[in-house]
User: What shape does this take?
Amino acid sequence: MKYEELKEKLLVDFKSEIIPGITQEFLDRPEMKALFEEHNKLVASGVDPKVQAEQEVPFAQSARFIRAVHTGDRKDLAEIQKEEAPKWKRKNGLIYMSEGDNVQGGYLVPVEYYNEIFRLVCEYGIARRDCRTIPMNSSTMHLSTSAGLPTTYWIGEAAQKVESKPTFGRVTLEAVKQICLVVFTDELLADATPPIIQYIIEVVREVILRGEDDALFNGNGGAGIAGVLSCGTQVTMDNNRQAFSQVHTDDLIRLIAAAACGSRTNGKFYFHYDILTWLRELKTTTGAYILNESPVGGGPPTLWNKPYETSDVMPDNTDSAVDTPFIVFADFKKTVAFGDRQSLTMKLADQATITGTNLFVYDMQALRFVERLDIECLLPTGITVLYTAP
Assistant: This one.
């Protein structure tokens, strides 16, 4: 069965009774086609799809669903409906996606289909990807950090020895909550169920990750996370250079050199995309550009042979002012702890009161996304921050 055939059947033959809200745009997503190809491999294997599903073969239930659509087996579709409905309620809390259709005898697309799409479209932000992730078993967690190393010394024969020992510090992770609350009408859900829900999940996921990155660099407004721009070691542009546009090659050299030795090897630059405007102009004393956006061999772009990454939450050109931080250099794996207390969860409500509006009375529903985490500097000396001159 070709993917175009499946789309035609879903959009024409079964649209009214299986997935009333499905759209051409949703089915044309590359993730959907990739999943279909995986499903087709199972279908082509010749193994009974019901047996596959019982053996928990990946995508087996979806393969069974596709085969039922292809053959017009409404009896098997009805069985899939009974099997899948409790999974939505138990695994996702998203049974409402097809709830109205179920009452009228509609069928649910296998839950694994949507779960896998969710996984494919999710791209982690800088905070989750680059920092040291520490699972938190409680809302508060204490971490011991190295504050100083022991020293060695040379002595002569029979000379008195001097005590030397490492010193330690303590960092406390205290989970704070980030939430996103999306409210929509019952009619919207009924008229565009699969696409609108998937769209909301994608957008909220992006917003949540951006919020984490914002907290990593700028803090969360005094609610417990300071941000590396304020906790790192300050390096100031010299010669009274007070604007981002006046950044110099020497500033970046000093930024690397000022970082604790543990951060220099795998350290990375972080700044807003706007700053590339000025960094592209910088050259070495021999005339070579220090910014390499397309390294040979397909590696990451580099600045002074160090990787760099841009983020929209960092100060942009409109923020240029005196005594203002705008470039960070660090190895976040060694210097920043990302305490993960509660990963992103979703909950649906249809009877709550939000900003004075009773959802039940106005036929509305709300989808609440919540996560609990903390981001703390473990080694401030390993994080350097470039400031404009005061």
In short: The CA atoms of residues 196 and 216 lie 30 Å apart. Confidence is low (pLDDT under 50) at residues 88-108, 117-123.
